[in-house]
Amino acid sequence: MRSVMATSRRVAVLFVAVCLLAVLPRGLQAENPYPQGAGIHGTILGYDMHDQLVPLSWAQITAEIDGVVVAQASSHDGRYEMFVPGGELTLTAEHPGYVTQTMSVYVSPGSSTPINFTLERSNAPIPEYPTNATTAMAVLAIFALLLILRRRHINAR
Predict the structure, then answer these.
(1) Distance CA 157, CA 150 (A)
(2) Which of 30, 70, 97, 132 has its CA 20 to 30 A from that of 16?
(3) CB of 96 within 8 A of CB of 72?
């Protein structure tokens, strides 16, 4: 009997707590600085070395509000999706070897908005290795080859 009363008391306390939370004044709850969210999706295309328009994978898309990054996404086979706060946004699409493109857009809260990018080639080389590292790697490879050939020559005697 005692455990039934304890359980009933716990349920009553829980019920009162839920009711109080439901009727709290709006001012006591945390304010969201951004409006209701929205979806953005689209394609990112770029011109290859043959001037053919191709989908770009691994392009980085960044959404900002007043200089604050609110969402980021990467493209896969030229497609991307992200969920952002509704309102005025600055979108930036960037990919190595291409000119970064930035645009200001307005996204209606609760909407799903298509926004596409077409990036131009920058014609700047993409640095995979620093120039000094390439030279050092070539010297090490030649040195290793000379050591191998010398050992073979010594073992052949």
Answers:
(1) 11
(2) 30
(3) no
- The upper half-sphere exposure of residue 101, i.e. CA atoms within 13 Å in the direction of its Cβ, equals 18
Write the CB contacts of 116 (distance below 8 Å, at least 6 apart in sequence).
42, 43, 44, 45
pLDDT one-digit tens code per residue, 42-101: 999 999 889 999 999 999 999 999 999 999 999 999 999 999 999 999 999 999 999 999
Predicted confidence at residue 138, as pLDDT, reads 80
Cα 89 to Cα 105: distance, rounded to the nearest angstrom: 5
What is the DSSP code (8-state) at residue 27? G
Q: How many CA atoms lie within 13 A of 67 on its CB side?
A: 0
Give the Cβ contact number of residue 83 at 10 Å. Answer: 14
- Strand (E) or helix (H) holding 55: strand 53-55
Cβ-proximal residues to 148 (8 Å cutoff; 6+ apart), any chain: none
57 contacts 69 by C-beta, under 8 angstroms: no
Q: How would DSSP label each residue in 95-156?
A: -TTB--EEEEEEE-TT-EEE--EEEPB------SS-HHHHHHHHHHHHHHHHHHHHHHHHHH
